[in-house]
Design goal:
Radius of gyration: 27 Å
Strand order of the largest sheet: 10-13-14-9-8-15-16
Helix content: 40-55%
Amino acid sequence: MIMASEVEEKVVFDTESAKEVVKELRANFVAGKTKSYEWRMSQLIAMLKMMEENEPQIVAALRDDLSKPELESSIYEIAMLKKSCGMALKELKHWMMPEKAKTSLTTFPSSAAIVSEPLGVVLVISAWNYPFLLSLDPVVGAIAAGNAIVLKPSEIAPATASLLAKLVVDYLDSSCIKVVEGAVPETSALLEQKWDKILYTGNGRVARIVMAAAAKHLTPVVLELGGKSPVIVDSGINLKVATRRIISGKWGCNNGQACISPDYIITTKDYASKLVDSFKCDLERFYGKNPLESRDLSRIVNSNHFARLSKLLDEDKVSGKIVHGGERDKTNLKIAPTILLDVPRDSLIMNEEIFGPLLPIILVDKVEDSFDVINSSGMKPLAAYLFTNNNKLKEKFVETVSAGGLVVNDTTVHLAEPSLPFGGVGDSGMGAYHGKFSFDTFSHKKAVLYRSFACDAFIRYPPYTRGKLRLLQAFFGGSMLGIIRAVLGWFKA
């Protein structure tokens, strides 16, 4: 018989637990612990050290969760986060400096500034597909801005979540930065609390739950979602380069399990066969004749997602459209890179985000018709891609397609450019981060106006007269000639 004292009881994280966590973090924030330049720098340096000393463990956790190739883990998760940290360390002092603002005659003489101040205690809810990068990249911005933070990693990537919890305690200031592991009950307990901002990465269904919970406390949110990111392929391009870049953005990004992965292709009926042939050639070169055995492809994250993707493939109006791939290994949760040609637009695969290794091709009579295909869905994607040498087509693409981000003649690489904001629009999300945008996302821009006791304008005080009204109107109009006329009119009166 096992004694009760020998049984390790599982610690329950409920609403009271969440309340205590927020209480502790808010007390430390109010005490000013996170606000200094020195604290922010120390935490960013510690995060860099954490990655440098634990890269093999991070790669192993990502392999356990997703069978993610070492190159993808090292470059697309760890190296990108190091780059984010490095930029914040380099630019932090500049970011924290008040921005000078112009003043007008209305407040003359005066000076003004925009001061960035931390929001307070923020919640970051991460996703499972890039569980290391998408957990800590927002945290970099939150630290740089001087906030206290709770990170809730995804339970669907348990090895990475567990490692994150351990590393944060070992390397970062756990009195101001905490990790809460768990699933729906723990997330629900966290969402009941009052936060100063919530950043959620995931799907639209959960985003609505997050937003509804935040609304109860008037908490602002950043929602990093997804959508069906289209790729328009024009003729007359370097097809070999285009094909490789699409493959890299689709199957080279977690086997299609990425929010900015190409979701479907639009090309002309005349060009489709050349495009398909090019895909077949390069896919075999990259992943071999039996891609289910390739170690350069991630597996599907779990059996539920495997079943969802299988359902998309098995629909009657789609199953006969497979022109390459389609092989599946249910035991090992592997699906080969699959291309489907001339897929009906009313099929299941064209009416939800695929988030997997399936790539449908939609056919149009002329490439300009692609814009109607994208816009007729009524959904704004997180990303959209165009391959062309036609400058007028590029201009129309930028002018016509509304998406979180656009890339011409490549896919997904805008994510690696910290000078660009990363975020969605409409159904693909709201708000943005990366680089300075991360700092701004977790900061309040406080307006500050400085005046002296000189030049106290009597015209703003009662008793009000017609002369005062004309002079004030002239001041607010900002015209020096109008002010002179008003003054002259005053004296004539």
